[in-house]
Amino acid sequence: MAEFDVDLFVIGGGSGGVRAARIAAGHGARVMIAEEYRMGGTCVIRGCVPKKLFVIGSHFRHELEDAAGFGWTVPPASFDWPTLIANKDKEIARLEAAYTTNVEKSGAQIVKSRAVIEDKHTVRLLENDRKITARYILIATGGAPNHGASIPGIEHVISSNEAFHLERLPRRIVIQGGGYIALEFAGIFAGFGSDVTVIYRGDNILRGFDEDVRTHVRSEMEKQGITILTGCTVAKVDRHGDEFTTHLSNGSSLASDQVMFAIGRHPAVANLGLEKAGVAINPANGGIAVDHFSRSSVDSIYAIGDVTHRFNLTPVAIREGHAFADTVFGKREVQVDHSSIPTAVFSQPEVGTVGLTETEARAQFSHVDIYKTNFRPIKATMSGRDTRVLMKLVVDGSTDRVLGCHIVGDCAAEVTQVVAIAIKMKATKADFDSTIALHPTAAEELVTMRTPTARHVQQAAE
Fold first, then answer.
1. Closest CA to 237 of 216, 219, 260, 264
2. How far are the Cα atoms of 7, 37, 136, 321, 452 from residue 21, in angstroms, in the given order?
3. Active site residue 121
């Protein structure tokens, strides 16, 4: 009789958990994976994928407007929100089915239930109160929207979860937050015709991004009619039938048809039985504390993805899940390299970034060269749209190595993905310069910028 019911029990059927389950099963492990909601997790069901579909859909308004400059006469167009929602739901259902099929094909077993940890080798399925013993337990429960401190009227506020299922497009919406989710939904709703106001407590949006990126994105969003109010927060929300009044900390108020908070996400660690099993929480970020192999304080329990609150990006969770399975079941130790991770904000305009910001580079290196360009894209010369593209390279002035790349404009994410390969390979500015430009493209600017726009040299301490 086997010592354990399974070799691996995975809690959470998102991208990271699914990858770990499939790879572990491929290594011959007996795997069971529990998901209490829908297979695919946040990214597939109510995150990256539906968000990107909404972003694409919201672009058409601009495309129709731009067409006139190229000779097209487009009849008055209409938009139907329920059609968008229905078609999005069909696509998400298709992807969920694909996730389920791929897991089952790998040999892993799926159970539709919430699972909680009883001890270092036991989980309990709440659906039928069944206990499963496992040699290893992997926690991949991801994260959840965090509305922050409770305020009067917080019950009237929606998160990104509910935004994907609204019955109607809000004519006016107030969004609190200045990061990925807030700005992406601001662009989405504005693109579909909503009057959008963004509220952010800091002095500028996109905290942690390069300062030039932050300034450029804000300027471009404001050109599109999006109102961005910084240095204040939402203090109270009143409801009047189908309308809301949002009271701000600066004493002003706003009327809207919807209020959304996108101020961050917290690791989904509540009521998992972590305390009972002795799994430690990282006091710095509230996620499960893990080592370089994603192992928790309990040697048989691992955690990957957003629940660790390290780098909350789907591809990172996938890579961590794969590395875990290879390390524990594939007989080879694999550590995930978390340096130079590319990321994108599908705001409008789009942001793509990889490597160090100018501020980070100047803090770490004695000589830093900056190459920056700000130009009107070729499409705008005919469409007449008032928009500009930003491209910026951060270079180690001593070794010529490219430390960071920051792009704001159409297809920024696509370009950044490729540039990330060069930066990961430690390419130099000379490597960029020796690459022949692909003309006419916006990306050719990355290999044609020859003269630094700024040079920073740290003064030696006396």
1. 260
2. 11, 17, 12, 8, 48
3. no
Residue 295 DSSP class: B
Task: From 240, 278, 243, select the one nearest 259 (Cα to Cα).
Answer: 243
Please give the single-letter amino acid code of residue 349: P
d(C-alpha 450, C-alpha 28), whole Å: 54
Helix then strand then coil, % of the chain, to nearest 5? 35, 25, 40
Alpha helices for 264-408 (secondary structure H): 274-277, 314-329, 358-364, 378-383
Bridge pairing between strands 227-230 and 234-240:
unpaired
**Catalytic option among 27, 240, 338, 439:** 439
- 456 pLDDT band, cuts 50/70/90, is very high
At 109-160, the pLDDT tens digits run 999 999 999 999 999 999 999 999 999 999 999 999 999 999 999 999 999 9
* pLDDT tens, residue by residue, 68-105: 999 999 999 999 999 999 999 999 999 999 999 999 99
DSSP secondary structure letters along 74-98:
-PPP---HHHHHHHHHHHHHHHHHH
Q: Residues 6 or more apart from 273 whose CB is under 8 A from it?
A: 116, 117, 118, 124
The model's confidence at residue 1, banded by pLDDT at 50, 70 and 90, is very low
For the record, the structure tokens of 130 come out as 């069944």
